[in-house]
Amino acid sequence: MTESLIVARQLVKRFGEFTAVDGIDVEVQRGEAFGFLGPNGAGKSSTMRMIGCVSPVTSGSLRLFGLDPATHGAQIRRRLGVVPQLDTLDTELTVQENLWLYGRYFDLSRSEAKRRAKELLEFAQLADRADSIVDHLSGGMKRRLSIARSLINEPEMLLLDEPTTGLDPQARHVLWDRLYRLKQQGVTLVLTTHYMDEAEQLCDRLVVMDQGKIVAEGSPRELIDRYSTREVLELRFTAGTNEALAPQVQGIGERQELLPDRVLVYADDGEAALAATHARGLQPESALVRRSSLEDVFLLLTGRTLAD
Amino acid sequence: MTTGAFRVAGWHLALYRRLWRMNLLSSFVQPLMYLLGLGVGVGALVDRNSASGATLGGASYVAFVAPGLLITAAMALGAIESMWSVMGGLKWQRGYHGIAATPLEARDIVLGHGVWIAVRCGLSATAVAAALAYFPDTRSWGLLPAVPVAMLVGLSFAMPIMAFSINTETDGAFAAIQRFVIIPLFLFGGAFYPLSQLPVGVQWIAKAAPLWHGVIVARGFTTHSAGALWAVGHLAYVVAFAFAGTTLAVRNLRRKLYS
Ligand SMILES: Nc1ncnc2c1ncn2[C@@H]1O[C@H](COP(=O)(O)OP(=O)(O)OP(=O)(O)O)[C@@H](O)[C@H]1O
Ligand SMILES: [Mg+2]
Fold first, then answer.
1. What confidence score (pLDDT) does residue A114 get?
2. Residue A48: CB within 6 Å of ligand 1?
3. Which domain holds residue B18?
4. Is B94 on the interface with A (CB under 8 A)?
């Protein structure tokens, strides 16, 4: 028995003349981890803000927990946790004051807010920083605090807009681990990201957005199978010669892609493609065979790399 | 009033606890310095002038100016408290956006801030009133009802300015409000001398702002010359400013936060 927590039909968001979200259909089930992937300006945050009931829908329909955000915004927000793209922490207050105060907005009693804050500080590995002023925390700690704060009302669904952007790899892994635990506790996760590895790690299902539209949908594995070959050969030639040499790999593998810094050859057998490259007398400075990733899917669908 | 508004007021209290010492100085010590400087210095001069008694309605100059200081201090506090902190909530620390994601609404944020400003103005007016009660010249039971008058005057400036602060894009305009609205009203708003001393045109401008209405009511209380109906009339004018400002601020904030 599945229950749709988010149902969006032909959802549109316009700012004046500009269309940021252009008729998307999305359905997210309880317990799922769902991702919005897309380049800058794709409309991910605009979508998340509509789902978070802080941005009115321009047209189309949106239901959260079966309720209409236009008429039941406050009721819906009571059941959501929101980690916005930009932190909204009270930087001059302490870590635990941030949690207590936020709990009060959800009508928690003082003692209940304190009890939950204590648990969440453990969960976010911030217990030893409970009395620190938020301004003095590192970026990763602030992000963990944002997540902890969004959980103070024990939300059924957590919305995370680029939860790990700007964090170092270590901090990202800590965050992924925490999000994974939440998912296991049954919390529905909806997140946006630029990072393919993050999407692969966390998401059961995702959509790729570009210019306000959904261009692909599926599990990470399905998307790779559908849009890419099994392996990819990455060739780097002497700086500046990429463009001149790229035509010479034509016909090797199923598809080739010229990037500013390298040439990608999509093939089910990467080693064979490399051998074919050598057989044509090409001498790349480096060659690497790897498995296809979401990054390749993204590149094909949006014509852009995600590395930023 | 909603419980949400009181939660938001609690948030302001938590922020304030970090800097109350600084604020205490400006909202309490400053009016007292004016009182001493003006009361002792100017007062001696004025009271020696035999014609001044009639102009001041028979009061000594210190007694005349004391309620004016009480009320102008509330005006200044109300104005300041609805400028940078609003910009901080929307643009800098973005606390308003954090609250917007909870069950609370724009109305709670505006009313909560109003409650907080009223409390601040009330506390500062109480402190000034307590100091005034210490001196025989300014001691009066009228100081008690003057405190809520100060709260209303604080709100009559704070709420319209809040509506403006929500919509303004940079903090540059705040200094202009101080320079071209608050300070002129401080000087020409009837706190330090009767408006009748000014040209008629200037009098009308001063009377259009809520400050003067609050000042004469507070003075009416401390000098025991206020009629109930007369006071209610003037206070209604003050309340109208606070009310219109609140309505406008809620509308502006709703647009800003939920776009
Ligand atoms: N309040 C607004 N007013 C006008 N235009 C807006 C507003 N918010 C977003 N936009 C525009 O809508 C488009 C989509 O923005 P959005 O923030 O949803 O993208 P995004 O996918 O989250 O991008 P990023 O990865 O950079 O965060 C952008 O072109 C942006 O400039
Ligand atoms: Mg975004």
1. 97
2. no
3. 3-46+55-258
4. yes
Cβ–Cβ below 8 Å for B101 and A55: no
Q: Report CB contact under 8 Å: B103, A55.
A: no
CB-based burial of residue A308 (10 Å sphere; 0-12 exposed, 13-18 middle, 19+ buried)? exposed
Q: Which chain A residues contact residue B102 at CB under 8 A?
A: 77-78, 102, 105-106, 153
Note whether A269 contacts B: Cβ–Cβ < 8 A: no
- Can you tell me the mean pLDDT for B213-242? 96
Q: Which of A14, A44, A192 to mutate to test the pocket of ligand 1 (most atoms within 8 A of CB)?
A: A44
If asked whether residues A201 and A269 sit together in one domain, one would say no
Place of tokens 């941030």: A98
Is A49 in the same domain as A94? yes
| B122-148 residue pLDDT tens | 999 998 899 899 888 899 999 999 999
What is the pTM assigned to this prediction?
A: 0.92
Mean pLDDT, chain B, whole residue set: 92
Q: From the list B7, B11, B102, which residue is nearest A77 (CB)?
A: B102
Q: Are A284 and A210 within one domain?
A: no
Residue A125 and residue A17 share a domain: yes
Give the Cα separation of A125 and A116 in Å (integer): 14
ipTM greater than cut 0.85? yes
C-alpha distance from residue B35 to each of A307, B49, B129 (Å): 65, 19, 12
Strand order in the sheet with A231-236: A255-258, A263-267, A231-236, A286-291
Residue nearest to atom 16 of ligand 1 (CA): A43
H or E element in which residue B132 lies? helix B106-134
pLDDT the model gives residue A243: 79
Within chain A, where are the H helices? 44-51, 69-78, 95-105, 110-123, 139-150, 169-184, 196-202, 220-227, 242-245, 270-279, 294-302
Is A297 inside any structural domain? no
Whether A214 has its CB under 8 Å from any CB of chain B: the answer is no
**How far is the CA of A292 from the CAs of A70, A108, A223, A288, in angstroms?**
42, 48, 10, 12
Judgement on whether residues A136 and A197 belong to the same structural domain of the protein:
yes
Name the 3-class secondary structure at A188. Answer: strand
Q: Is residue A212 part of a domain?
A: yes
- Output the CA–CA distances (angstroms, integers) from residue A254 to A231, A250, A251, A268, B83, in the order listed: 11, 9, 7, 8, 62
Higher pLDDT, B23 or A285: A285
Instruction: Please tell me the distance from the alpha carbon of residue B118 to that of residue B246, in angstroms, as a whole number.
Output: 13
Q: What is the pLDDT of residue A307?
A: 43
User: Low-confidence residues of chain A, pLDDT below 70?
Assistant: 1, 304-308
Domain that holds residue A282: 229-291
